[in-house]
Amino acid sequence: NFISFDLTNNRCVVIKSCFYMSHNNSTSGWEEKVVKFFKEQLKEKDARTAVPSLNDVPLHYLKPNSLVKFRCFIQDMFDPEFYMGAYETVDPSSKAKMMQCGKYKDVAECSVDFHSSNTVNAERQTFYCVPVPGESPYASESQGRVVPSTSYAPSRQKRSYEDDDDMDTHPQKQREPNSVGPQSPDNHHGNADCKRQETEAPSSQAASASHLDLNFPLPGEKGPSCLVKVYEDWDSFKLNDMLEVYGILSVSPVLSVLADEKETSSSLLDPTDSMETAAEQRVHCPPASLVPRLHLVHSQRLLHNNPLMPLTVMEQNTAFLSSTLSEMAAVRAELLTYFTHVLLGDTLAAEYLILHLISNVYNRRDVLPLGKFTLNLSGCPTVGSYTERLYHIIQQLVPSSFYLGMTLQNLNQMRLVPKKDYVANRLVSGALQVPKNTSLFLDETRLEQGQLDTAGVHNVTALGNLISWQKVDYDFNFHQMEFPCNVNVLVTSEGRSLLPSDCQIHLQPQIPPSQIEEYLSSLHVPSDSSSQVNKFRIFLGVARLLDYSISDEVTKSVEDDFVDMRKDDPQSVSAEDLHRMLVVARLLSLSLGQTTLCRDSWMRAKHIEMQRKTRVEQQKCVNGNEP
Amino acid sequence: SSIGDLMAMPTSPGTDLLSPAAPQDTSLLSSPSFLVSSPLMYGTPSSRMEGTPRSGVRGTPARQRPDLGSVRKAPQVDLQSEQPVSDATVGSEPSGGQRLVIWGTDVNVNICKEKFQRFVQRFVDPTSTEDENAGLDLNEPLYSQKLEEISVVGDPVLNVNCRHLQSFDAELYRQLVSYPQEVIPTFDMAINDLFFDRFPDSFLEYQIQVRPYNALKTRNMRSLNPEDIDQLITISGMVIRTSQLIPEMQEAFFQCSICGASARVEVDRGRIAEPAACRHCNVSHSMALIHNRSLFSDKQMVKIQESPEDMPAGQTPHTIVVYAHNDLVDKVQPGDRINITGIYRAVPMRANPLQSSVKSVYKTHIDVIHFRKTDEKRLHGLDEDAEQKLFTEDRVQSLKELSLKPDVYERLASALAPSIYEHEDIKKGILLQLFGGSRKDFSQTGRGHFRAEVNILLCGDPGTSKSQLLQYVYNLVPRGQYTSGKGSSAVGLTAYVMKDPETRQLVLQTGALVLSDNGICCIDEFDKMSDNTRSVLHEVMEQQTLSIAKAGIICQLNARTAVLAAANPVESQWNPKKTTIENIQLPHTLLSRFDLIFLMLDPQDEAYDRRLAHHLVSLYYHGEEQMEEEFLDMSVLKDYIAYARTYISPRLSEEASQALIEAYVDMRKIGSGRGMVSAYPRQLESLIRLSEAHAKVRFSERVETIDVEEAKRLHREALKQSATDPRTGFVDISILTTGMSATARKRKEEVAQALKKMIQTKARTPAMKYQQLLEELRAQSETAVTKELFDEALRALADEDYLTVTGKTVRLLA
């Protein structure tokens, strides 16, 4: 009733006033009302898209104290803070007292009456959030762009509209080279689309923004980071969650002034303040112009960050699901053809690549993660930067990915495992702090002979742990803490990888080695927004989220099969092989849009596994001494 | 005031008037136009004693307590009139029937004092087990005895366990927790009155301070909320940083630059009200701060982080700032696990008069009153209950119920790593390892400690989920370490000395074995470990200590760790025709230190295959709920083990000892029939350990015959797997203890004799070709002679000084 919140016209009326009003109207229960109101509004279809997003719109176009959204990743959790939930101000001239609300705000009016007995103290939690790491350009760009609310001075209005138009037609000017990249694979090597490729270890950290290290997990990332203030139920949030946050933007210059002041004239402060190190100050109170504050009103955990799929759980979107499921087999065939083309005519490898891309840790049985499917693609040609092209194509298809060239320098110098910095009191991120279902592309073809130092050994161990147990042990200096993760790891190598893997497939190019380079230059890269590519993206996203079961009959026949296989030659099939076959069968069924295992899929899984095994055996014979 | 006068006056440097710092400082310290004080501090002014209480007449100075926060006179209020009684300071006598309480609280000073004195004089706790109370008569009033101790030792600190206070007087306890800032000074007064009454002649450096600890329940850092502000709390955590010492001004000394008159101003909540004018000569703005004559106290900032055990999964640990004052400074080091008791504070952000708005957040910290290290005992005790995990009554009850079930042993074993199929005996073995034996001390008789930990080695084909089992155990135990033999060096396992980059001091960094003291060290790929690294395990696995002599640091560290190792056969597949030693190529000296050695092999039998397949398939589609039902929860298992390890230490019963003796004699007998030793004292010790562990599983304080039976069975099973001589099919312990089975030794001797005979029968040539000799022997012998066997035979003959082998030629010596 009291809130004039015109979503359709894309205007977020200043929230502040409504709080004052609501507070004066009904002293209790107003918070719930506000939150409920926002939630209701946001349920409506257009509402989500009507709210401007911090991901797309530059900060200076957004109006302070307005409602914005932010698709983000919880990188660190700060300590809870106490604030004045409600306080009384005294007008210096009239001495009139007035209740003020401190919720959803960072600053209080200066004439606070600290002695008032009406003051209510409350607690809130701060999360340090960054944009989703490793997000592919298509995923970060097409998430419902919104023209920012027009709250600028009239003289500026025109210009800002222009800018907006600009952005709508050519999505994000600074990313333009990226969208060009795919069409011209010849020049993409030194191009900006490899911006996430860590060629020279950590130098990029310093390059971000200014002196301020925004602590992005992956090197070379850009984008706004944000301090999200959470008012309720903060225990339900977990580190590394992907969230869509709706909240009130706070960029009050006071926050920055305080921060600056502390840096420059610390003598102004009493000794208790100076005990907090400058580093800590910088991290916890960064200038609001660089790291805005967002007061959370409503948030939603994201199961995926694929913009082409509905956000909500699959079951609720039966229409979408049934239409996709019916197309699954056809899209799969198309994708198989395409991957065969990319993988130099090797259909079996293409088959495995599909299975790998839709794998997902769907459950954990004590320490054992179920459903992971790390693929080691061995025998990759080293000419024509093949692996980088391959990554580039995968990046086009999955919502988030990261390319890690396993050069000695990278292994020895890069920070993979997040580490707690007690001086600045924050978790310094590492490349393995990524959201779930990120595709991690490890390029082992770039490894050369040399010495790994201590950090390198730790990094390789961390990668091994990630692959084997899907967990990363964060370094808290005095102890380690285990964080489970869910990352699809693809290792490309010449021989067998030095890292463990669930499945190794040796690439058998159908093209003579002399022509590979030529073939690569003519490699078809789909354009960014073709309908085919979008179909692939939806396919990979949906297959990953499907439920799966095995009927009793099929269970029986699988058991029989296993016993039979062991009868013939007990050495040939081990429990581990059965594990893998079950995973392959599961992924194969899902890739065909089947949510239960049928006999055919099982036979097919068995068949491709046999093919793969004979190929690995052959390879052993060729190489002779390979273990 | 009297305090300042007692201080030795520093020789102040001439005139402070010209000191350049002084004017600047005063301007900084002058309070801004309006007084900003926290509404949180509202109604909790301190009741600092003006001067000293009665006993102070003796000249014992009272020491300021910055830990109690602001020093301000607290007016007392008459409850009836609701008006502050003017000038009624805390020390004053209450008038007649008026009920005086400290403003903002319901604390009446005199009643409170009396109550506390009664508590000190009367409280008795006959069941006290705290180490602080060692040597005290538990049937006498506890704190009176402590006062006596103070009079002897002269350390004027009285630590009071709040739990005692609570059981004695719940109301007083409530007041203490709610208004620590008022109640603790009252306690101080009471205790000093009492003390100087009893020991009028004792001399103390300053007056006794009461330090309560163990307030309420030990709270989790996460559960602190705004309601706890200004209350007495106890939380646990780990120290992560300590600051330099900070001198904090308690009392400022001002001197008039015109007439030289001085004034003292007490610091109130970090602020000093600078006298605007000199009282003596009435010149305004003439007062200058004299640093040398001001009063300072020590202060240190300590950062505490939640201990990893208290944290919910998927979140980062919280930290909190703690201020330590006076003698508590430098009491703790980074890395210490501590319980701290203190007052929780919140201070609003300082407002800047130039700005129109302020940040609406508070800074929170704890003013510490008492530190208690929780891991102190670990350094010099042999008690394993260092980490006293607190179990709720319900939990203990449910654990005890579980322990009474007849099949508890099987249940727990199957709850262990449910995703790994079968291998029942191995799981049982690991279960017993998790419980461990009882610790025994024979240092009186010169043998030192007996190892209580059970060591287990798993060997077998690759891909038989050994690593998974290790990972599971590592995740299950609180102090587990996981290393891989491939990646760890000797120093990584033991300890190394490194130079701290900040302090340039040498520091001892401990490795996996020391870190898993009282836990389990899981070592994967044991066979890939270098010999050098493996050699450090000899000491750890039997003596349970680790000696270090590096960079001038010579020490012996405790490493009472159980070792769970996994090894792969040297040939990628286990060769059933070879002995364990030959298969994994580990030195027998090390192998004999393992209590149980299990083989994890593919059984290769149809029924097993079927069950395995069924198990695996079900793993891939059963819902999570279904899994929960089938097995015990991992957390229950964790608690069960922790409880048993902490509270149960079984001893051998008469029958059990008898059964053990018989078992050992039987084992010896088997061998003696064939002329070999089939059991060593080490095996007996293993049996004892295993029986004790099994008794622990049952929560039994006595080891019964059934425990011994199970230990025997398990030990036999393990031996059957690992110590069977593949040539004869008999179990032969010497395979593990000497690295060679008796039959193999016999065979070696036979070959050597045959070789000797052959050489003797040949024409006497002083030198022979190696290859030729081997072929001749092969032609002559009825059984196959391998090259290794031939080499060994040659070596045996060389030992007899009969021949020498140089390169490819064999020379006779005789």
Automatic annotation (TrEMBL), chain A:
Keyword set includes Transferase: no
Gene Ontology MF, one: chromatin binding
Biased composition (Basic and acidic residues): 186-199
Keyword annotations from UniProtKB, A to Z: Nucleus
Region feature Disordered, mapped onto this chain: 137-215
Coarse class of the protein's main subcellular location: nucleus
Subcellular location: Nucleus
Single GO cellular component term: nucleus
Keyword flag Nucleus: yes
UniProt record, GO biological process: DNA-templated DNA replication
Ranges of compositional bias, category Polar residues: 139-154
Family label: Belongs to the MCMBP family.
Protein name listed in UniProt: Mini-chromosome maintenance complex-binding protein
Organism ancestry: Eukaryota, Metazoa, Chordata, Craniata, Vertebrata
Record gene name: mcmbp
From TrEMBL, chain B:
CDD domains in the record: MCM4 (cd17755)
Record-annotated MCM C-terminal AAA(+) ATPase domain positions: 408-616
Region Disordered: start-end pairs: 1-97
First-level EC class: hydrolase
SMART domains: AAA, MCM
GO terms for MF: ATP binding; hydrolase activity; single-stranded DNA binding; single-stranded DNA helicase activity
Top-level taxon: Eukaryota
Entry EC number(s): 3.6.4.12
Pfam family, one: MCM_lid
Keywords on record: ATP-binding, Cell cycle, DNA replication, DNA-binding, Helicase, Hydrolase, Nucleotide-binding, Nucleus
GO biological process, one term: DNA strand elongation involved in DNA replication
UniProt KW Ribosomal protein keyword: no
Record's catalysed reaction(s): ATP + H2O = ADP + phosphate + H(+)
Compositional bias segments (type: Low complexity): 27-40
Primary subcellular site in the record, as a coarse category: nucleus
CC per GO annotation: MCM complex; nucleus
InterPro entries documented for this protein: AAA+_ATPase, MCM, MCM_4, MCM_CS, MCM_dom, MCM_lid, MCM_N, MCM_OB
Location of this chain's protein in the cell: Nucleus
Quaternary state and interactors: Component of the MCM2-7 complex.
Family named by the database record: Belongs to the MCM family.
Role this protein plays: Acts as component of the MCM2-7 complex (MCM complex) which is the replicative helicase essential for 'once per cell cycle' DNA replication initiation and elongation in eukaryotic cells. The active ATPase sites in the MCM2-7 ring are formed through the interaction surfaces of two neighboring subunits such that a critical structure of a conserved arginine finger motif is provided in trans relative to the ATP-binding site of the Walker A box of the adjacent subunit. The six ATPase active sites, however, are likely to contribute differentially to the complex helicase activity.
Protein name: DNA replication licensing factor MCM4
